[in-house]
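Aim 2, interim progress. The first record below pairs a target sequence with its structure tokens.
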Amino acid sequence: MRYVSTRGDTTERRFCDILLEGLAPDGGLYLPVSYPQVDAATLNRWRALPYADLAFEILSLYIDDIPADDLRAICRRVYSKAIFGTDAITPLKPLADGISLVALSNGPTLAFKDMAMQLLGALFEYELSRRGEHLNILGATSGDTGSAAEHAMRGKRGIRVFMLSPHGRMSPFQQAQMFSLQDENIHNLALEGVFDDCQDIVKAVGNDLAFKRAHRIGTVNSINWARLMAQVVYYFAAYLQSRADTVDVAVPSGNFGNICAGHVARMMGLAVGRLVCATNENDVLDEFFRTGIYRPRSSAQTHETSSPSMDISKASNFERFVFDLLSRDGARVKQLFAQPSFALAPHEHARIAEFGFVSGRSTHADRIATIRSTWQRSQTMIDTHTADGVKVAREHQRAGVPMLVLETALPAKFAATIVEALGCEPDRPPGFEGIEALPKRFTVLPADANAVKRYIETHV
């Protein structure tokens, strides 16, 4: 399997090279030259596999430069009951109204990001050890990516993490999960801006090839193909558990990585009828799918909401979908994303239906109502982001087609909104009591790429 950039550089690279590289040299994102196809017989064979072995089967379609025995051992070590608390890893949780949640928040940081980040940490450690190299990871988080990455990378040999987050924009629980870590290889940088500023700086540093190579910069954001590839697995696992011929999947969407993994699974032949993109008040993606107009907002126009991990205006992984939508015309993709906004031609917008995408938006009032109704109907407590997914999923349900909603996080991470909706505090898993009171270690910086570079230079 070889990989190419979404922006026209046709140089083909192998998996372990792009694992450590992140962005392509031309500023594009990596995708496989073609998507491997999975037929009904293969799916039937996979049906009885435990999650770790299913992960190996799918990942081995994309990775041919790690020996099979090593890759299988990595998958079995990562996707274990010891890490995810259940043998099923991602069990389905039926709700009362014909919707099922795909439980993705059983990992160490109580959010779906653990599903890919735990694998990414293991792959980084394996490949760096094999090469005798080190890596300085630069990442951006609106909430859950940061804690999942740091908990996956803490103490790992040859790895330092520099995580950018928007100062004061995460929930107290999310901040505590990150800032309370005292490991020497973890650096939390709270930037005076919004998530898009953090993400822009990660890309700016990644596009400074001299700095990137001199300081061995890699990334854990879903611009790294390995993250997205790992997320493809749970689409297959959910489909196989559903026992249905076709499913629709609703995905709370911020940076478009989670739902882009569904796009990849669908391109591989998985019978996903609709991919339902659910946004919050930051509805750039909903506007695009409805109108064909891509109009990112400025930092000042990016709303601070009660589903903060989705407070994103410029969704990085969206470029991967546009690349496929435009028949992999890298030159056209490069031209479009060089502009502050763009509009598809009518015939291009019409093609979106071929890829199964529909969309909708959710507001704070919707969030409160959905958390409340889900509790009343199903005695199931959901977090604010999952509530966005359930709200939009209900609008797109089809008779006879199961609707799956990808769970984003456990409610404990967003307690204030749960209390507003239900009048009670959400339960906390053991070990997370009083986390907000732990000593915190972080550095506040201006939202400036040069300031971040200077910090990295003095801490490597």
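The second target in this work package is listed in the same format:
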Amino acid sequence: MPRLLIALSLVAALALTSSAADTKYTLTGDNTKVTFVGKKPDGKHTGGFGKLAGTATVTDGDLAKTKIEVDIDTDSIFADDAKLATHLKNADFFDVKNQPKATFKSTKVEKGEKGYTITGDLTLLGKTKPVTFPATITDKDGKIVVVASFSIDRTQWGMIYGKGKIDDKVELGLNVTLVKR
């Protein structure tokens, strides 16, 4: 009987240690903003996505051991022009009827001299491509804040509408605020 109690105590202690090592945060459209800027010769348009769901898991309090998984509701796209937002939802761009979500799953977060580099797989229109981008990640006063700005080539995911009239490069912005509870 004493051995059983010791074994159960050890299992309980290990379970507490492993669960305490990971801190999981919920990503929502309220605490996570994904924005874009699309350019063309005579101007630019801004927009973003209003709905998303995902998690950020930090292991052992080390921000370089963060895992991010997020699903973006492509139908929640908005733009500075309502007509453009409607066009972005059709098959020329996001094809929300057939591709209702875009996803990002990190594969690596590295700390460098000037911040972090996040690498992961971005899936748009059913195609998954690796992306790497610089980010600032801070952990202060009970809040983790992630800010990033980078570009992707939309044509790599099959968005070729307007090629030559609309820039292939789209600037993406990410702003996340996670509160420790």
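The chain has one domain: 23-179. This observation will shape the mutagenesis plan for the next reporting period.
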